[in-house]
Input
Amino acid sequence: MVIASVLILANVPKRYDYDVPPTLAVALGDMVNVVFAKRPQVGLVMAITSNTSSDFELLPILSVDTKRLPVPDDLRALLNWFRDFYCVRDYVAFKALIGLKKRRELPEHPPATVDPLPALSAEQSVIVDAITHPHHKQHLLHGITGSGKTHVYAHSIQRVIATGRSAIVLIPEISLTPQFTAFFSQHFDRIAIVHSGLTPKNKDIVWNRCLAGELDVIIGPRSAIFMPLPQIGLIIIDEEHDSSYKQDSHPRYYTHDVAQERARLHDATLVLGSATPSVDTYYKAQSGRMMYHTLTARHNNHALPTVDLLDMNACLTKSLVHPDLVAAIQRTLAAGQRTLLLVNRRGYASLLRCNACQKTQACPLCDTSYTYHADGVFRCHRCSSYRAMSRQCMHCGAHRVDYYGIAIQKIELEVRRLFPTARLSRLDRDTIKTIHDMTAAIESVDTADIVIGTQMIAKGHNFKQVALVGIIGGDTLLHFPDFRSSERLFQLITQMAGRAGRDLAQSRVLVQTFSPSHYVFAYAKHHNVTGFFEQELQYREPFDYPPYTQIINIIFSSTDAPKALAYYDTLRTFNATVTETLPNVQIIGPKVAPIDKAAGYYRHNVFYKIPMDDCDAFKALLRSLKSPRNLRLVVDISPQSLL
Output
């Protein structure tokens, strides 16, 4: 008797055994049709065993689903790891990694003519040699902005392909721009670019091409790590510090962890690259767990920009834009050069308050202030709900609602008033919703005198003739109740500084701030990345924050506030077991979450600081934690935000 262990594609707690009829050829990884709970279901064959007898009669597999693609061995192994590492059910892991992929007829792809790669500098050549050395498997490439990290990636990929293996290049979704993808398409033939704008059919076609061995290189955002390339030899995570590598919905996987496991399964090399690596990654490199490489000069030898602070506390006017920044923009315009202005908030006004009763106009589902947008709409940036603009207070009825706070649309209007003849381009999530919007926006930059954008303009773009960068409202990041707040502000300033002077001998960055004495600015002014890392590590170690421990955050929520509160007893019992079994685990909570309400759900959390040696034991306990119906329970392993 041949028995198949089948992962049912439904949210059930375990796998189920089915009889494989002698007349049916079933292989590992096949998608099969079965009956489950008296209903037709599709399942994935995860194991096949032989057994001469069984205590009870098993239902037979009905047929192999030939319309669906089988799942290769390495992805099934990754699925098992994902399920255990993130403490989720099989089906949740399956949906995140694979989903149902259809067989598709593959279009013809005639060989394309590609250009030779640009020559490497001596510094770059040494790094490529190290990356492609067979015994060096993990690398951090810390290169200043404009230093040629992309060329290092490309030459490393070329060498890997020459050995008959393939490569995955991961980039933040917003960085899928013509500047990056065109470079690789120009120099590699068997390449595919995946992104959120692809139709399900086109995603299936890329999946089919991978399994057919038609592709050597995949470029895409975090989900590209699951593409079924055969014989992977190299995985690259560019802009590795970027927050988009953390999935912010269930299951909340972190791309770095998945990439590390996938590289291990293929005996592949993993490269993390950034001008501002995360503190966690830097610590791993300094601890000897990764090889550490630096690129210290821009490829054209242009100097990094000077960085100066503009103290808004000492500003004599109430202008949104500091007079010194206004004067610098005027000089830049006169020289025929370009200015980038980063504004760290969408919309027109970030706070709506009634001057009669002093109450904030807040989203009823989230209890957070609406943001006013210049299209006449109040929007909640947390749950995406909206209502028509009104000066009438939601609380007292007085028509005295006024708008406060800095946001990008307000700055745009101010800049247009100050520089009426300048050509402006604005880049934010309200103007850019698709990859095609981004392509058009990047092209519009070439004809603009002043470019105003949110954080998306800091992400790896190579804008021309940028002599001046202004940062407005960036230090609001310091007010978030998160131990990574300083790190994120430092990265933002340094990345924005990297947009300046990439093709100019001299450039400048001006940072408006109400907190000029904060230590983050002292390091940002001098482009002192390693100094900031060392300072930040000194702050974190006494408090046992990562990278010194693993954090796991459990968020539980309900639309019924008493039901969420009732779960405190369950968690206190669980915490008592943790303390008894693993006394070195630190427990904070249960308590009301920093974001206490979102989309109508009342949110609470408890988080754990876990010594690295205790992580597996803690997860074993965690798998026993149950949640009642009508309660959302999210287990966030390695959270990148504690909000």
